[in-house]
Design a protein that fits this description.
Layout lengths: L1 H32 L10 E9 L5 E10 L5 E9 L3 E14 L2 E9 L7 E9 L2 E7 L4 E7 L6
Antiparallel strand pairs: 1-2, 1-8, 2-3, 3-4, 4-5, 5-6, 6-7, 7-8
Length: 151
C-alpha cells in the first residue's frame, strides 16, 4: 500500500511540475519577447497574490489571459503555496466590457486534492485585476496588476 501511495504522490508532483514549467515558459515569452507588452486589453500577464478568507493562507499568483475565438478567455494561473509549492491550472472565463473595464466569471474543477469545483467572479479596471473565488472548502480573493518585467 505504501508503494502505491508513493507512486500516486510522485505522479501528482510530476503532473504539477510539468504544468508549472509550461506556465513559466509562456510567462517569459509574454513578458520578455512580446513587442506590444503590456497590452492595452485584458490579455497578457498579470501578477499579485491570492488570499484565503477561510484560513488566512496567502501566496504569489501569476496569470496569463488568452482570448478565444468565441469571446471568452482562457486564464492560466500559477499559484504559490507555502512559498515553495507551485500549482498551475486553467480557467475558462466569460467577459463583459463595461464603462469601468471588464467583469469576468468562470469555474474550474481543480480536483479533490485542491478542493474540487471553484467559482470565480472578478473585474479588470484601471490596470487592476481583482477577483473572488469560492469552493466547498475555501474562499478568498485575487489581487493583481501588470508586471513591469520578468524578475
Amino acid at each position: 500500500m505504501k508503494k502505491v501511495l508513493h507512486w500516486i504522490l510522485a505522479g501528482w508532483i510530476l503532473s504539477i511540475s510539468t504544468g508549472c514549467s509550461g506556465f513559466h515558459r509562456a510567462w517569459r515569452q509574454e513578458t520578455t519577447t512580446n513587442p506590444t507588452y503590456p497590452p492595452s486589453t485584458v490579455e497578457g500577464a498579470w501578477e499579485g497574490e491570492w488570499i484565503s478568507e477561510s484560513n488566512g493562507h496567502r501566496g504569489r499568483l501569476r496569470c496569463l489571459f488568452t482570448g478565444n475565438e468565441d469571446g471568452t478567455y482562457t486564464t492560466w494561473y500559477h499559484a504559490k503555496y507555502l512559498k515553495f509549492l507551485g500549482f498551475a491550472y486553467a480557467v475558462e472565463v466569460s467577459s463583459n466590457p463595461s464603462d469601468e473595464g471588464y467583469s469576468l466569471s468562470g469555474q474550474a474543477d481543480l480536483g479533490k486534492l485542491a478542493g474540487g469545483m471553484y467559482h470565480y467572479e472578478g473585474t479588470i479596471s484601471d490596470g487592476h485585476f481583482k477577483a473572488t473565488y469560492e469552493s466547498k472548502y475555501d474562499d478568498g480573493t485575487f489581487r493583481m496588476t501588470r508586471p513591469l518585467t520578468d524578475p
